[in-house]
Design a protein that fits this description.
Layout: E1 6-9, E2 12-15, E3 18-29, E4 32-43, E5 47-51, H1 58-65, E6 73-78, E7 81-82, H2 88-94, E8 96-98, H3 111-122, H4 130-143, H5 159-171, E9 177-181, H6 189-204, E10 208-212, H7 216-222, E11 225-230, E12 233-238, H8 240-244, H9 247-254
């Protein structure tokens, strides 16, 4: 497992605190061990790529982190606080936002109405009235270049536009950590480029990312660090170059 990064301050070595940490996380569904004692941590400023063959446990890990699945054993900490027993809305309020491989939107609501639902969930009633929330929602729609669809029903949006909408909607939660599940899957390359650019912008604003993707060239070019799961176990953890050359990763993907 990678150690927390260190920096020299005043002549002494200072260890950067973990922003996110998983320790011995295990989940079983009947006889299927979806996660088996998975442990890793990440520090502020990293973009963690999470890869692995189908059925390796990637989405299960995101589901556990976002409160959808409980762990059978182990712990998950965010900014030092234990979250593995928290409900999804508590985790969202704590600063973790989640997108899904198949965009989860409210199809009979407009794009703008979709944005307001999480906005009302986390708003500070002392400072954000409805007008302020609408303004912020429009800013995020514009940030993702889909403001022209604000009053369109979400059901009428393309698959790529829905993916952008759920990305924008997640930002209404004011996250400090975003979990993206296959954000590049099945969408036009121009939209992929847009998402990559916006991830870069958001990292500049201090938001960290864990990104699950089967698009290996894209995730290898995006991530600062890559973790590989196979059969519910962590088999590699390192830089993209280190992971590319790892014999265990080659075997997991190619069976050789």
């Amino acid at each position: 497992m990678k150690e927390a990064s260190t920096a020299i301050k005043g002549g002494t070595s200072v260890t950067a605190p973990d922003v996110f940490k998983v320790a011995n996380a295990s989940i079983a569904f009947g006889g299927n061990q979806a996660l088996n004692s998975v442990s890793f941590s990440m520090t502020k400023g990293q973009l963690l790529g999470l890869i692995g063959p189908n059925g390796s446990g990637k989405t299960t890990l995101l589901n556990a982190t976002s409160g959808i699945y409980p762990l059978n054993q182990g712990t998950i900490h965010f900014e030092g606080a234990s979250i593995e027993k928290s409900t999804p809305h508590v985790i969202a309020r704590a600063g973790i936002a989640r997108t899904f491989q198949i965009a989860r939107i409210f199809p009979q609501m407009t794009a703008l109405e979709n944005m307001l639902a999480p906005g009302f969930t986390v708003r500070d009633s002392q400072s954000e009235d409805r007008i302020t929330l609408i303004r912020r929602a429009r800013e995020y729609l514009e940030f993702l270049d889909i403001d022209g669809f604000a009053h369109e029903q979400a059901a009428d949006l393309s698959g790529g536009q829905r993916m952008l909408l759920q990305f924008a909607r997640a930002l209404m939660l004011k996250p400090r950590l975003m979990l993206l599940d296959e954000p590049f899957g099945g969408i036009h390359p121009l939209l992929v480029e847009r998402i990559l650019n916006r991830i870069g912008d958001l990292r500049g604003r201090g938001i960290d990312f864990i990104v699950v993707s089967h698009d290996l060239p894209t995730i290898m070019g995006l991530a600062t660090r890559v973790i590989v799961l196979a059969n519910g176990q962590l088999i590699a953890d390192g830089t993209p170059d280190e992971v590319r050359e790892d014999p265990g990763v080659i075997e997991a993907y190619l069976g050789v």
